Amino acid sequence: MPRTADTGGGDDRGGHRGESRNGNRDEGRPGDRAEAHDGVRERETEGEQEHLDRVYRRLAEKIHEAEFLMADAARRAQVGTPGALAERDAQVFRAGVHLNRLNSEFEDFLFGRIDLLPGKDGKRGPDGAYTSVEPADDAVRPDGAGGAVADIAETLHIGRLGVLDADYTPLVIDWRAPAAAPFYRATPVAPGRVVRRRVIRSRGRRVLGVEDDLLRPELTARLDGGELAVVGDGALMAALGRTRGHAMRDIVASIQAEQDEVIRAPAASVTEVEGGPGTGKTAVALHRAAYLLYQDRRRYAGGILVVSPTPLLVSYTEGVLPSLGEEGQVVIRALGSLVEGAEAELHDEPSVARIKGSARMVKVLRKAARGALELPPPDGGEVPRQLRVVAFGRRVELDADGLRAVRERALGGTAPVNLLRPRARRLLLDALWERSGAGRRYTDPELAAEARQAFDEDVSTEPDFAAFLDAWWPELTPRRVLAAMADERRLGRWARRVLQSREVRRLARSLSRLDADGSGPLSVHDVALLDELRVLLGAPARPRVREVDPLDQLTGLEELTTHADRIAARPARRERAGDAGQDERTDYAHIIVDEAQDLTPMQWRMVGRRGRQATWTVVGDPAQSSWTDPEEAAAARDEALGTRPRRRFELTVNYRNPAEIAELSARVLALTMMGVRPPTAVRSTGLVPRFVVAGGEGGDDLGRVARAEAERLLAEVDGTVGVVVAMERREEARSWLAGLGDRVVPLGSLEAKGLEYDATLVVSPAEIADESPAGLRVLYVALTRATQRLTVLSGEKDLPDGEGVPDLLRE
Ligand SMILES: Nc1ncnc2c1ncn2[C@@H]1O[C@H](COP(=O)(O)OP(=O)(O)OP(=O)(O)O)[C@@H](O)[C@H]1O
């Protein structure tokens, strides 16, 4: 990667930078030069300020227009014809969305600019911009002195939304528009038409400064009669060096070429992205969601699901899309909250997680869903062993064998258990009729049919029959069945020849935290089991109750609600024990899976069900996987993603960790995945990781040293400090760090996934590594969270050397 001497760094596009581009840049006295540079910088900043002022004036006009449209639509609401209401609906929607976006307080509405040579074929698109990526053949001319000269033919400003002037000239191009792609893609090796790429730093309405990359440094380029100026010292480096807070920031001003290819990949196929820690996979996935919405809003609005591994990562990332102007259009869910009504945050211990995540559970759950009909009713009592009714004035009975035979017949096939209840009822009536012998008294089939109908009515209206049916074929909820698996003997029957008895014991014990009706805290892995059960049980058919506004009934227009009405009427997410997944959307148009390497086979099944028709973007890093059976997971992933063609991408540059931290974490990578190359770190800070050892012999002052080291890091960085400990020390770590303020975040190793902090303290690498079979990869995750500083604290188990370097991290 080229680096420029004046910046001490460079980005992976490697553009040339420097103040004022002219052939004499090294001449003159240093003081004069600095003054001249300041003058150029000021002039260029002012020029951008003027442009931004124009943009805001135009935005004010557009806001005024949108408000007028909203008011006009409200007036139309008083005209009661269906046509007027439909039009109002559409207009309110369009104007509302528009107004919302225009009013959004963007920190930097405008952030980029490219200055371009004329296009090859001279063709221009509808927005007046040249369409060709390549420059015209005669764009560059010899300057007569051995060099080359060219005129800038087009200047495009890039921002979060497109803005057209009143005469339709583009004032700002939406970052997702094709015309904006060269801003992200151009490199000095393949500059296309781009001569200068400028990142504009602004806050609200004020331009703070500009930073340029010159992509054709060999050219003397002219703009409006003057020479093209170049100022600044690296937008990417400035972005990477900034302090981290509790929310992820968008990267829209500095997306790199390899990332841009992923963001703009065609939606029709499955886009698979692999890349090491810090390569921007999460950032890219979120920008892709915004890009897809821009490409085809009609298809994707409300229909994109982003699946994230933890609630912490959801809250860390959920601000990115609103900052890109896509408020509320994309659903971001943690794996533990994917099923409506479940909000799981508990983590199972690795051996239990492994069982619950395994595809073998499908067989166990199939048995459980059917076997649960034998469960004693939750309100006490027993499953009825016989059925007695009175029909045609006589007693008819079915004994336990008779009932078992009926149940077996009813359960034939694979239909969901709750949906089989009407069939079971019919078969019961058949068996009772048969047992009553009444059929044999009729030779005339018509009379027999009539008698049978009368018999059925007689039996069905008996309250005892209804009560029997409720007890014998109860309506089962996923939570209730899951809770029933806490009984080891029962689970043993359901899991016969699938799980070993040791596994049965562990699984049953972990589910014993649920009450008999299934209420109680769920673990993240329980949720995929609930979802599987939801399908196996099926939602019982209920009569549809439609609430109709009486006023609407009068006009007969109840279907014509506005989009705003529908959004307002959407039920808030509720915690409903036993009611998982009833009114949840399960047909997303596009699903983005973050940290895909961690999904278990059962989780892939759960996610796959939500995207039967979807296109996919799947990002992950096998080296960070905490799942131990990659082959089983790969098969489930293939099934979820279906047969669509796949496009694979690799991200290779680490934007998070300085080289000093990346070098240390690479040692663990080498232990766990030999031969895998870590991504290249783009910057180096000169700050090597610090090694500390706790507690001499006993190691019991781990907490005291951890606190002291966290305090030290707090003093060294302005932003956040993550303290990563083994999962079983989570609670302890909270007490170690109590009172240090919210810049310090204690984390169990599995919770650290996807997050980043200015500084990280990793406590006892050996404890983290020993916690599970995938422990080394979990440790790799922990060691790759810091953007500036890393401290490693060893306990006794870590076998630190004289320098305090733990055994696992030695070269
Ligand atoms: N082009 C870019 N410009 C500026 N910052 C970037 C760029 N790409 C990535 N980053 C920053 O690098 C950091 C890492 O990005 P991100 O979390 O998306 O990486 P990741 O590949 O998902 O990492 P992990 O695998 O560790 O979860 C973030 O702070 C992100 O904003």
From TrEMBL:
Which segments constitute the UvrD-like helicase ATP-binding domain?
A: 254-658
Asked if the record carries the keyword ATP-binding, the reply is yes
Instruction: Give the span(s) annotated as Disordered.
Output: 1-53
Pfam families xrefs: UvrD-helicase
* Secreted listed as a keyword: no
Q: Which GO terms describe its molecular function?
A: 3'-5' DNA helicase activity; ATP binding; DNA binding; hydrolase activity
Where, in this chain's numbering, is ATP bound?
G275, G276, P277, G278, T279, G280, K281, T282
Protein name per the record:
Helicase
Q: Which organism is it from?
A: Streptomyces taklimakanensis
Upper lineage: Bacteria, Bacillati, Actinomycetota, Actinomycetes, Kitasatosporales
